[in-house]
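pasting for the record
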Amino acid sequence: MKAMASRDGVVKAGADDWAGIGQSLDAHGNAVLPGLLTAGQCDELAALYPRDDGYRTRIVMARHGFGRGEYKYFAYPLPPLLDQLRHALYPWLAPIANRWNRLLKLATQYPLDLDAFFRRCHEAGQTRPTPLILQYDEGDYNCLHQDLYGDHVFPLQVAILLSEPGKDFTGGEFVMTERSNKSQRADVVALRQGDAVVFTVHQRPAPPIGSRRRGIRKVAMRHGVSRIRSGRRHTVGLIFHDAR
């Protein structure tokens, strides 16, 4: 897959790149977008974390049983780079989401324009922004979970690693699990600074197991972060549905 460096939110990837991303999502429930941000862009975003302005709320994970660490939800208006990335990625992801829903025999289809999807969310009372920035220190971790904030849920989201593994922190791997009937599997996704991972929010379609089985399986997905062994790790999460 070609590099996907972004300048001012312009995602430089063509149809061939996205065909590969779709294939990885179909097979594994996740796909890596290498070099989505530069090191400078990552550092600029991470430097926003200590500020008090620009956020709607701060969550200390241990207080809610989410793990250890903390995160902040951005307020509207989002930082321009995050707003532009959200709008640039969504039109590529919506066709994948729509194809998945057809395979799962779900009636919901998503508009190809992000602002049109926001209108759908807001009409249902989901008006709060969901993009967030997470900070983990030594010993912190994120329990396996799903980011569901209301009736209108977009089935894919994006996490961008802002810190450099091996330099800024050790440990802290992005982890996904999938469960279908009695089958369970874990997947560790290796990321470098500036890489993003697109992944399943809730569930995805998967082919049947075994040559005699037919039809599509519904696979439940969860994601989390393993324990930070040293240093500090920052990540940005781009969720495409707003919250109640």
